Amino acid sequence: MEKVIILGTGCAGLTAAIYAARANLTPLVLEGAEPGGQLSTTTLVENYPGFKDGVMGPELIMQMKAQAERFGARFQYAECTGLKRGEKHVSVEVEGKWIDTSSLIVASGASAKWLGLDRERELRGHGLTSCATCDGAFYRNVPVCVVGGGDSAAEEATFLTRFASKVYLIHRRDTLRASKVMIQRVLDNPKVEPVWNSALTEYLTDDEGHMRAVKLKNLVTGVESELEMKCVFVAIGHTPNTAPFKGILDLDENGYLLQQPGSTATNIPGVFAAGDVSDHRYRQAVTASGQGCAAALDAERYLADIGVH
Ligand code: NAP
Question: CATH homologous superfamily of domain 114-234?
């Protein structure tokens, strides 16, 4: 019987691991399908407190992992594929075997959706990103584009006007699905130029492999064109990694884990949620870390209450 299993090694999972390990709970941490989470695919992180000159995303993750290991956290490259509720424990399915644990912290994150175009993986961090808050400030006085028509796209496009000379908002239809206030804000901004009924079909790079332009196809007329820009911000939604928990843990209508008000507790005693798997609002490395800390403290108190030390 484990005391604490932590699912995920992004900022939430690793911070939970540091706290649980320092509480002598020797947590077992499962790395999941995307070890290191979203930070492991970004470049410079300038908004994580404590790093005056910024820190590379993968470096930050490596440091957090080493910090957790130093206090006794155990890591395993494996994915949780199922969850069962027991009497005073839960069981997680890992590589076909069930492991019992007195408490569980789900920090399995959310994965940004991508367009599925060629070279998408290699271009990430080189003019292709899904996070305006993280990368917007690198693109000052140059044109950029945002793909999508929801609240995320509207919010990111508005945010990017602080830096970019022009923000093209590329959407596959001619109406945005974002909320009215966000639509008005984004379309009223003189730096934003909507590109309606258009699909981005190809990323075009310069000799150094950086984004130079994109190829577009008008979905009404079929006409193809090129648009010059330095960065593509894909904002077509995120998918929370909650598939193994459906029907067991309470999810909201978009599949995010629901927490009890004022806590990281889920609907099952001893199971806690932290980071992007339950947060579609802030989605920041530092807020995920904060939630990971809270989940570890909640788990520690829960274990003390049920007499597990
Ligand atoms: P979303 O509402 O699901 O919107 C995704 C957008 O991307 C849609 O406009 C969709 O087009 C487009 N899209 C999806 N797949 C595409 C593809 N393969 N190619 C091109 N376009 C594609 O996602 P979201 O904007 O991330 O928002 C998710 C949730 O978080 C929503 O409930 C939203 O209200 C909430 N949110 C709220 C705030 C806020 O209140 N401040 C900020 C961000 C997000 P179609 O419109 O044609 O389907």
Answer: FAD/NAD(P)-binding domain (3.50.50.60)
